[in-house]
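Hallway conversation turned thread

IA: we were arguing at lunch whether anyone had actually written out Triosephosphate isomerase end to end. Turns out nobody had. So, for the record, here is the sequence (252 residues) and right after it the structure tokens. Reply here if something looks off.
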Amino acid sequence: MTMAVIALSLKMYFPRRRTVDYCRTLAGLLTERGIGDSGPTMAVLPDFLTLAEVQGILAPVNVRVGAQDMCADDRGAFTGEVSGSDLRDLGASVVELGHVERRTLFHEDDGMVARKVRAAWRNGLTPLLCVGETEREGATAAAERCLGQIASAVGDDRESPLWVAYEPRWAIGASEPASAEYVREVCDRIKQSLGERPSAVLYGGSAGPGLLSRLWPSVDGLFLGRFAHDPHAFMSVVDEAIGLENGDSENK
């Protein structure tokens, strides 16, 4: 794919009002710049409590809204869970699944992640599947681990849409992040494995100015974190993506 994907999860960092204000500011910046359908694919994943309001703010500026998790079942006695059917009704089109925090803090295993991926597809949501190796190792071995996680999650399905966010878990908070060469090699292998499936491979490690340019076109975009807690920082990555897309089209 040639259109970059820029996604952001706000986790549980912001109180409700700050989330809404953030999205209003971002919508204003996008409107000022006139960035519409021709720009990169953008997505913001707020908390459940603000999802409906955020969707109303961001939909007019062509930003997709996603959820940070979902229940593997659509209905039933599942106290505290959120149905994919309801997420879709609220305007969500993406759902993050398999994040390392869900796996380590809430003990979700491969089987649960696979059930949630199928629930996402069943409800018309695109899974944003998080993968990554736990220990520092060679890029070839890391890629094999990621491919195993993807295979476990998607099973025999070869056609449904899928976004994959690669984040080497050993690099989270590390003094030395994964090198661009390492990330490119792993993501190249992931992209090759996805074949003709409608998909995108994002890098979810520490993001900053220039990272997308160093990884492109081995990655299709970035899955942003705290770097983008300022809407202007989010826009800086959008601008970088637009420059890369323009350059890509000129080389064809």
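OS: looked through it. The chain has a mean pLDDT of 93.
IA: good, adding that to the notes. The two ends are 13 Å apart (CA to CA).
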